[in-house]
Specification:
453 residues, alpha/beta, Aspartate Aminotransferase, domain 2, seven-stranded mixed beta sheet, binds 4'-deoxy-4'-aminopyridoxal-5'-phosphate, BioA, biotin biosynthesis, S-adenosyl-L-methionine, Aminotrans_3_PPA_site, Aminotrans_3
Amino acid sequence: MIELDTETLRRYDSEYLWHPFTQMSEWENAENIVITRGEGSYIIDSEGNRYLDGVAAIWTNVHGHCRKEINEAVKEQVDRLEHSTLLGLSNDRAALLAKRLIDIAPPGLAKVFYSDNGSTAVEIGVKMAFQYQQQVGNTEKKKFIRFDNAYHGDTVGSMSVGGIAIYHEVYAPLLFPTIMAPSPYCYRCALAPEGDCRSCGLLCLQELERLMKEHAHELAGLVIEPSVQGAGGMIVQPPGFVKGVRELCDRYDVLMIADEVAVGFGRTGAMFACGKEGVTPDIMAISKGISAGYLPLAATLTTRKVYDAFWGAYSELKTFFHGHTFTGNPIACAAALASLDIFETDRLLERLPEKIDYLQDRLQRLMELTHVGDVRQEGMIAGIELVRDRHSRDPYPWEERVGVRVCLEARKHGLFLRPLGNVIVVFPPLSISLDELAMLMDGIEASIRSVTE
Ligand code: PMP
């Protein structure tokens, strides 16, 4: 393999690459890090510097980097079958993984439709719900309900059900109309100004009910990130919210589409976030952790009830006319199968509570810092919201890039972090050790102090 020096790599990067979600005028003028290796909880750059990966690549690497068993499974699969198609054929890895996914999914989910990224998995869910309603005779039910601060990806359909204006505003004329429900964002709640979600009686859920009642006749589905709105700022939902949403969907005959792209695969402490409140959605989108970050893979799971609505003679045109070239790619499925094995062999979920408790302690300590307004945690996900003024909750103006500055400062402590505006994200590999978690939280605390005090 050709090994290039850092200067050449940086030059090639800035001449030929266009990075996602990146203002390239800033990127091209910066001395950027080029990652060349990964090892457990660390990524290593072309100069040999090691960074503790505080965000598991992009919320994907459940077992850290370059885990031996997954490496072996991928290598073995490459020598057996690298690609085939699910159009008119099956493959052994895709079939086996489908069975294993159904075994661990919330009870009642029965069928797996593969794709290769989170946006697409959600978009498939939206199309499935739409077509389902048409085919069971609910021909008026064509609309979707979405949440403020939601993020479901960047394709046109997934943007339509998202709610983060700055990402998607420019594309507004391309998007289909939806009904927007309030975000369950207790720290900045527009409905309960006191911001006390414990005593407000879930006003956000009451408002959702009002909207659903009003629009029930035209609502095909509701799209939700259960437990945590991720890209919106790691906004943790109050207990009972997901269950309440499920009940409303049942009451108003609306399909519940759960986007578990970020929260699935152990992130919240349970295999799937819906499972924490005993909820089975009608449709569930998964990606990111599915292949432990190794290869592009996603899936949209659904129930027999939804699947059965697509049955019929070919001439009835009830087929789900959707598919992607790399659907069910066997190498990606082999990585996913190896990852599921590690969940079992490492007893990963059983070992999480200790780490979750430790993280909770460290987050509480951060509340002593003058400019930490809120800390939010769900399992191994945390958001630390930095504010200019703690009492008024006055945010830092976004142009000050406080989150970015904290994350750059954290590099001096050997950490890789990526913020969401003024929110510092903690999303490490689930396999992180307690010592590494301590190092991560020490570095975050020191970096917040040095930038804000
Ligand atoms: N849904 C959620 C909840 C996500 O967090 C993301 C990605 N951050 C997506 C969908 C989109 O996934 P992808 O980037 O793989 O398209």
